[in-house]
Amino acid sequence: MTSSGKNGLTYAEAGVDIEAGDALVERIKPHAKATDRPGTMGGLGGFGALFDLKAAGFTDPVLVSSTDGVGTKLRLAIEAGAHDTVGVDLVAMCVNDLVVQGAEPLFFLDYFATGKLEVEQAARVVAGIARGCAESGCALVGGETAEMPGMYGGGDYDLAGFAVGAAERGALLPKQVQAGDALVGIASSGVHSNGFSLVRRVLAHAGAALDAPAPFAEGQTLAEALLAPTRLYVKPVLALHRAGLVQAAAHITGGGLPGNLPRVLPKGMRAVVQGGSWPVPPVFRWLAQAGGVEEAEMLRVFNCGIGMVLAVREEDVPAAIIALQSAGQEAWRIGRLEEGEPGVEMAGSIWG
Question: Measuring CA to CA, which residue among 57, 174, 74 is closest to residue 114?
Fold first, then answer.
């Protein structure tokens, strides 16, 4: 039995606007085109994206892949109407995981899911994704926009990202990590994209509004300060790696220093991190005080000011720090590696 005429149901009446989806593709094509790099083949709109590893300059590559999201940081972005930088977060959470394995990010795909597609909102998000890709030398080769009425509330959306990189077979990290290696920490840009369920609980506990002035960041609202995008470490870390200055690298995401440093250390090796060896950004002290969060919990949930840690030969520390500073990255010697039970020992308080 079929329906016809004015009584026939349509996809649009069911909540899915095909024309809006087509309009979004047209809006984001220039952003994606701006991320083209050697190896990119074709453009948006096909059933799959092609990439030529030989044209990208690899001879004996190993592919490295990563996927991640932005988590409940999106809740704050949606409530604040701030959609321009969460795309950078999405890219950073994926490509920073590639570079710690010695891989160069090659291409990126995104998944944007929403209850009702708002073209302007989605275009701002994807523009941020393209910005993150461009800053990482990574091509935005495709993605998927899913309009799913009944799955998400009005104005809500979710993001997932997928990155693929490559390294020459003999250039993967970690390599030859040994006791006596120094730990060099690179500054984060703030909370990055982890721990926002706790951040939101702190905001509720403190009765703090997103549009209120941030007590820890002059001239910014709480939303602006908390939504600072995740720092992209790809280019400076790759440069150090290619100069032979990096033995291992750890992206400090959920789990903080205690949860992430052991992931790149061999058996029988532990990290000793010296509290007070880097300046903890004021946002973390505010979160700890406003929420009554203990130091051990802060370290277990947040990056606490260190977004990336490199294991470096002791004699290479000065060169590594100078190179990072020249690339616009704040960096400090924050500890060392020792033989012993696996894990991370915090020597002293992070508050100094």
Answer: 74
**What is the average pLDDT value for the chain, to the nearest integer?**
94
Q: What is the pLDDT of residues 90-121, one digit of tens each?
A: 999 999 999 999 999 999 999 999 999 999 99
pTM of the model: 0.94
Q: Give me the pLDDT at residue 3, please.
A: 46
Report whether pLDDT(280) > 70.
Answer: yes
Q: Under 8 Å CB-to-CB from 252, ≥6 apart: which residues?
A: 188, 260, 261, 303, 306, 307, 308, 309
Predicted confidence (pLDDT) at residue 166 exceeds the cutoff of 50: yes
pLDDT band at 46; cut points 50, 70, 90: confident
Exposure b/e, 117-150, CB count within 10 A at least 16 = b: bbbebbbbbbbbbbbbbbbbbbbbbbbebebeee
Bin 333: left if φ > 0, else alpha if -120 < ψ < 50, else beta: beta
The three-state DSSP-derived secondary structure of the chain is: CCCCHHHCCCCCCCCCCHHHHHHHHHHHHHHHHCCCCCCEECCCCCCCCEECCCCCCCCCEEEEEEEEECCCHHHHHHHHCCCCCHHHHHHHHHHHHHHCCCCEEEEEEEEEEECCCCHHHHHHHHHHHHHHHHHHCCEEEEEEEEECECCECCCCEEEEEEEEEEEEHHHCCCCCCCCCCEEEEEECCCCCCCCHHHHHHHHHHHCCCCCCECCCCCCCEHHHHHCCCCCCCHHHHHHHHHCCCCCEEEECCCCHHHHHHHHHCCCCEEEEEECCCCCCCHHHHHHHHHHCCCHHHHHHHCCCCEEEEEEECHHHHHHHHHHHHHCCCCEEEEEEEEECCCEEEEECCCCC
